[in-house]
């Protein structure tokens, strides 16, 4: 019985990943994407155009 418990604990500990072992492959480029984003004026212009082109009845 104790051997089964030992195997179960061993199996459960294998699936656990510590944060220090985790590596993130995706680069966080939020600042770069934000800098390339729309200006306030362009955003307002697009919103206005979108609303004007809605199928109003």
Q: Over the alpha carbons, how many angstroms does the gyration radius reach? A: 27 Å
> What separation lies between the terminal Cα atoms?
75 Å
Q: Which structural class is indicated by helix and strand composition?
A: mainly alpha
What percent of residues are in strands?
A: under 5%
Q: Could you please describe the fold and organization of this structure?
A:
The mean pLDDT is 80. This protein has three helices and no strands. With 57 residues, the protein is mainly alpha-helical. The chain starts with a helix and ends in a 5-residue tail after the last helix. The chain has a domain at 30-57. The chain has helices spanning 2-14, 30-35, 40-52. 0% of the residues are buried. It is elongated and about 75 Å long.
Kindly summarize this structure in a few lines.
Helix content is 56%, strand content 0%.
Name the descriptors.
elongated; mainly alpha; 56% helix; 3 helices; 57 residues
List the helices and strands and how they pair.
Elements: H1 2-14, H2 30-35, H3 40-52
């Amino acid at each position: 019985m104790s051997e089964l418990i030992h195997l179960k604990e061993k199996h459960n500990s294998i699936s656990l990943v510590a944060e220090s072992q985790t590596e993130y492959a995706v680069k966080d480029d939020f600042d770069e994407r934000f800098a390339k984003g729309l200006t306030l004026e362009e955003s307002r212009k697009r919103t206005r155009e979108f609303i004007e082109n809605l199928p109003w009845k």
